Structure to design on (408 residues):
């Protein structure tokens, strides 16, 4: 299916015509579980991956069934933010939130600090709704070196991966060290995710460059950084070096992606989860097991999810571990996190959502297959998830609210 190019959409929206968006939540809302969850349709599952794609479970305390969602809710912890799109944390308990126009905010001891610790609006280009300050990662030694990394669109709409240095609750905008600049042919499909892996390397999610249907074939080209997961070493030299183990001798770690809006590592296993926004029909979660040598081809634009798009393609393309169609009103997948917090019922369950419906699913590995279940209908336009140092999971909405998953 071909789809018209729509530029004025939220950063993670698929190329599709949207129906009336869901209602947003009032500032004092608590998001509860849906009623009648068992009667709703979970995401359509592709054929289970082969056993070689699923490493043996190495976290014996993982939940084996999904919790009763009626016993839990999403509790409001902050409001009044301007289009928050990422949440990270440090080992002091502070939560760092990025606002798409170019600010980073801090929640400390339950309070949203003001003014913002850093504002780089002067260099962030958010002239299109798929542009702006899109991703944040704190260095594993952030407490010692103060280094944090951002993914934003800047001059000409190009992607900038930069490092800044913080001191206490503030950071100097002039401390910027630009690591990498990637030309963007169109204003959409910029990706935006950043995360440090258990190997200490920085992983970066980049979209295919935009328009519809990947007109330049960037997802499958290995001579461009677009449509890829990158892996770089920010510790050995400035601005960075290419790790010796990268499969193609470049920054590229995995390819065949359309718009990886959020990527995250399971803090207990090191497995990498990728929420890849679909074209017009299918949204998907892709997966790279811990210890992988990289080089995975996730199929775009030969494949959209587990289905033909252009068709054809090389042998060995990797199928998603979960997908859902737009038939139920979904439009844009929001990749999430594997829960590793204080509630054992959720341990090992990957939580992810959809921007248009506000639905939240759980995804769990059951021996040699992946099970997914619809757990919450939030009614909010979900922009991102987050996780703190204790493994608790948070949910961000486009109207400026931040929620935490809690027991009722």
């Amino acid at each position: 299916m071909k789809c018209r190019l729509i530029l004025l959409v939220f950063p993670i929206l698929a190329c599709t015509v949207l129906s009336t968006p869901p209602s947003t939540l009032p500032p004092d809302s608590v998001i509860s579980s849906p009623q009648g969850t068992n009667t709703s349709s979970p995401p359509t599952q592709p054929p289970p991956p082969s056993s070689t794609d699923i490493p043996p479970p190495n976290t014996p305390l993982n939940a084996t069934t999904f919790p009763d969602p009626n016993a839990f809710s999403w509790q409001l912890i902050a409001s009044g933010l301007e289009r928050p799109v990422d949440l990270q944390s440090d080992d002091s308990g502070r939560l760092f939130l990025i606002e798409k126009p170019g600010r980073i905010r801090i929640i400390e001891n339950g309070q949203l600090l003001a003014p913002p610790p850093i504002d780089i609006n002067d260099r962030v280009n958010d002239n299109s709704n798929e542009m702006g300050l899109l991703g944040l990662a704190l260095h594993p030694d952030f407490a010692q070196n103060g280094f944090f990394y951002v993914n934003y669109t800047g001059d000409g709409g190009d992607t900038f991966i930069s490092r800044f240095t913080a001191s206490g609750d503030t950071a100097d905008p002039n401390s910027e060290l630009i690591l990498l600049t990637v030309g963007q042919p169109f204003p959409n499909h910029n990706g935006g995710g950043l995360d440090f892996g258990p190997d200490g390397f920085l992983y970066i999610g980049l979209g295919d460059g935009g328009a519809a249907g990947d007109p330049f074939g960037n997802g499958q080209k290995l001579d461009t950084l677009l449509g890829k997961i990158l892996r770089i070493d920010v510790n050995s030299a400035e601005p960075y070096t290419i790790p010796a183990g990268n499969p193609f001798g470049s920054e590229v770690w995995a390819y065949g992606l359309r718009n990886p809006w959020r990527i995250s590592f399971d803090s207990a296993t090191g497995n990498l989860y990728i929420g890849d926004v679909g074209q017009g029909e299918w949204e998907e979660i892709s997966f790279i097991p811990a210890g992988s040598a990289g080089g995975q081809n996730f199929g775009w634009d030969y494949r959209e999810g587990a289905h033909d798009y252009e068709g054809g393609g090389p042998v060995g393309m990797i199928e998603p571990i979960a997908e859902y169609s737009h038939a139920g009103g979904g439009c844009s997948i929001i990749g999430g996190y594997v829960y590793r917090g204080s509630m054992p019922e959720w341990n090992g369950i990957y939580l992810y959502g959809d921007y248009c419906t506000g639905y939240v699913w759980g995804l769990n590995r059951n021996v040699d297959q992946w099970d997914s279940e619809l757990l919450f209908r939030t009614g909010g336009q979900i922009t991102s998830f987050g996780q703190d140092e204790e493994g608790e999971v948070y949910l961000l909405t486009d109207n400026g609210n931040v929620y935490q998953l809690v027991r009722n």
Q: What stands out?
A: The helical segments are 142-145. Residues 1-60 have pLDDT under 50 and may be disordered.
